[in-house]
Design goal:
The chain is an all-beta fold and 137 residues long. 0% of the residues lie in helices and 38% in strands. The strands form 3 sheets. A 3-stranded antiparallel β-sheet has the order 5-7-6, with no helix packed on it. Strands 1-2 form a two-stranded antiparallel sheet.
């Protein structure tokens, strides 16, 4: 069974160049991480592994004022803080599917059928609340 072990943060300067394998938004809204903030169009592309020991069990969002040379900024070109998605590995169930979800209000729990939800990717920015949600097996 393929598991998600990380995300590639993909940049383009044209919305029409959205990669076909980028994770979708749960309600059919834009899956551009930077939507409404300027900068690059930013999409998350899952990378997969068949090795359960290398699979992610969840994801965390790190927002900081300094760059991380080992990760790609999800807010590229928008100004302000750097935003990173970090895979978490452990003995829990492994992530098999992921989507984004936009909301006008804060979410504490993932939608029915989903196992987990990150903190708000857009924390500290105006506009939509934005999260990664996932299913596990």
């Amino acid at each position: 069974m393929p598991y998600i072990n990380d995300f590639d943060v993909y940049y383009t300067n044209q919305e029409a160049q959205q990669p076909p394998n980028a994770i979708p938004e749960f309600n059919g809204a834009s899956n551009d991480i930077n939507k409404g903030f300027g900068g690059e169009f930013v999409y998350l592309i899952p990378s997969y592994t068949d090795d359960a020991s290398k699979a992610a069990t969840s994801f965390k969002i790190v927002i900081q004022g300094t760059t991380d040379p080992l990760r790609k900024d999800m807010a590229k070109g928008a100004g302000g803080d750097y935003r990173y998605v970090i895979p978490v590995q452990g003995p829990q169930a492994k992530v098999t599917e992921a989507q984004l979800i936009r909301s006008e209000s804060a979410l504490q729990h993932p939608p029915s059928g989903y196992s987990g939800i990150t903190s708000d990717i857009n924390k500290g920015r105006q506009g939509d609340f934005l999260y990664i949600i996932w299913k596990t097996a």
